[in-house]
Write a structure and sequence with these properties.
Layout: H1 5-21, H2 29-42, E1 47-51, H3 57-64, E2 68-73, H4 76-85, E3 91-93, E4 108-112, H5 123-133, E5 139-145, E6 150-156, E7 159-166, H6 170-179, E8 182-190, E9 200-207
The structure holds S-adenosylmethionine.
S-adenosylmethionine binds next to helix 1 and helix 3.
Length: 209
């Protein structure tokens, strides 16, 4: 079997990645405001998935906001770190291309800097899958770097990796989400903070009812 380079890369950097980003959201109040708005719309009525959860820093924030949140990720290394750091939370291995939930099961989905690893031609199928998994009216929250570039990173946090990711245009994502059956709710584009290289976007949409 050919190893998935995204999974292998995140396995290698998992521990250092968790440390590097542990407190990153502390000085990003508008990012946290979007997560809080998402939590308020999702409510406490059902399970919420943090897809591409990595070390679980957003999963725990969603839990602290009162949600029944669990994390899901491609990388066993990331999941091991998440489970060790947050033993009270559930973390599952999987892919956002095929979620292990029945139609309409989820009260909300967050994909925080994880759709960046989906190839553009695969995004419509992934958005269709997220739509399938959500209950009518349930919110979807996406975070990503703003731009047009497809990038390949060969070194991260002192490790050799092979990570392909996309910078994305919020207008394009809005069009794709609308085509998948979502109603756009809010789009945040904020300026760079700390180590950000470009503007950052957070997009909030809801599954149509
Ligand atoms: C940039 S990290 C973000 C992690 C976390 N959301 C955070 O903000 O700390 C991207 C994560 O997405 C995961 N990922 C990439 N493609 C995925 C897929 N198709 N399904 C699930 N997770 C995926 C990676 O393993 C990695 O943990």
């Amino acid at each position: 079997m050919i190893e998935n380079p995204t999974r292998a890369s995140y396995d290698i950097i998992a521990t250092d990645y968790a440390e590097y980003l542990a407190n990153e959201l502390d000085d990003r109040p508008v990012d946290r405001a979007m997560l809080a708005a998402f939590a308020e719309i999702a409510g406490a009525g059902g399970r919420v998935a943090d897809v591409g959860c990595g070390p679980g820093r957003v999963t725990t924030l969603l839990h602290d906001l009162g949600l029944d949140a669990y994390g899901m990720d491609l990388s066993p290394g990331m999941l091991a770190v998440a489970r060790k750091t947050y033993p009270h939370l559930l973390f599952e291995e999987g892919t956002m291309s095929a979620l292990d939930v029945v139609d309409g099961e989820l009260a909300g989905i967050v994909a925080w800097y994880s759709i960046i690893h989906i190839a553009p031609d695969q995004r419509p199928a992934v958005f269709a899958e997220l739509h399938r998994a959500l209950a009518p009216g349930a919110p979807l929250l996406l975070a990503f770097q703003v731009g047009d570039e497809a990038l390949r990173v060969s070194e991260a946090l002192g490790h050799e990796v092979a990570l392909d990711f996309q910078r994305l245009r919020p207008e394009r994502i809005a069009d794709e989400l609308t085509a998948a059956g979502f109603a756009m709710y809010a789009t945040l584009v904020r300026e760079r903070i700390g180590n950000d290289k470009v503007q950052q976007a957070v997009v909030l949409a809801r599954r149509g009812v």
